[in-house]
Description:
- Four copies of one chain form a homotetramer.
- By secondary structure, the first copy, chain A, is mainly alpha-helical.
- Chain A has helices spanning 5-30, 35-66, 72-89.
- The longest helix of chain A is centred in the middle third of the chain and has 32 residues, at 35-66.
- Chains A and B meet through helix 1, helix 2 and helix 3 of A and helix 1, helix 2 and helix 3 of B.
- Chains A, B, C, D: Belongs to the FrmR/RcnR family.
Amino acid sequence: MPKQIEDKKKITLRVKKIQGQVQAIERALNDDTSCAAILQQICAVRGAINGLMNQVLEVHLKDTLVDGDSTELQRSEELIEISKILKSYLK
Amino acid sequence: MPKQIEDKKKITLRVKKIQGQVQAIERALNDDTSCAAILQQICAVRGAINGLMNQVLEVHLKDTLVDGDSTELQRSEELIEISKILKSYLK
Amino acid sequence: MPKQIEDKKKITLRVKKIQGQVQAIERALNDDTSCAAILQQICAVRGAINGLMNQVLEVHLKDTLVDGDSTELQRSEELIEISKILKSYLK
Amino acid sequence: MPKQIEDKKKITLRVKKIQGQVQAIERALNDDTSCAAILQQICAVRGAINGLMNQVLEVHLKDTLVDGDSTELQRSEELIEISKILKSYLK
């Protein structure tokens, strides 16, 4: 999880917002909303998920590669883990 | 919304599952799970959202272009709406 | 391939444009362009590929589900094939 | 562009491979290949573009955040640029 409390708060807020968006899709299904409108809601959630992913990735880069004192070797080992994440991130 | 009750049930089930996955991300944040693990959870939600989108789109194609009697003109008008959806769907 | 010559021309034009964009990435690599600028070029190609995909999919829906006289059963069989495409389309 | 010649070679090879894949789509259009098969080829190009993007991003992280001696402040400034790239990367 993010090392900075501030980062964690921001990310949790985004996650809560996405929860609200997903609940709205369920309501829309019950309210007989048009499929076109529901697809737009789903697109919006996907956009929010991508935004969340970017933010968590950025915080992770900050925590592992940027902040504090570190040697080239330490950062190099962190990058191996980050590469694995990137591979499943975009495929 | 989907015309067939069966389709609606399946889609609602997927939405509920995604709700559970998003709640699990919130719990993971509180449990100090590693960023790498949280990113994998977010990737999984994105996959589930894409799956939901495909299913709603497929049902929409069935309801508007396939099922029942329709003229070429009617289907042609439906396709204009579907094209708009596809454009925001993949960009 | 698209049934209408007009559709085929439009799609071929898009493909040629993408070829130009990919060649530009190769030149940028040779010209020592910054990684940030190259990543933006790659993003642009991805956007163009998504646009191409949407257009081919739309033409395919027109050719198989909209144009001409067809029975519900014929369209229903076409949808099975389209569903397979959609699944590999977004995953 | 990548600082290591080895990285540049690998990336150039990927770009050349994508060029071949895009040319194959043009040939498929001329050969009256089915739309379904063409859509699969387009999906494959998109996958290759995403793979290229990941590799360039990884090399960029290595060049800016990992390799050599750097201060926290320097890496922090690099991260601002990387964040901008990530935002246009996934949206």
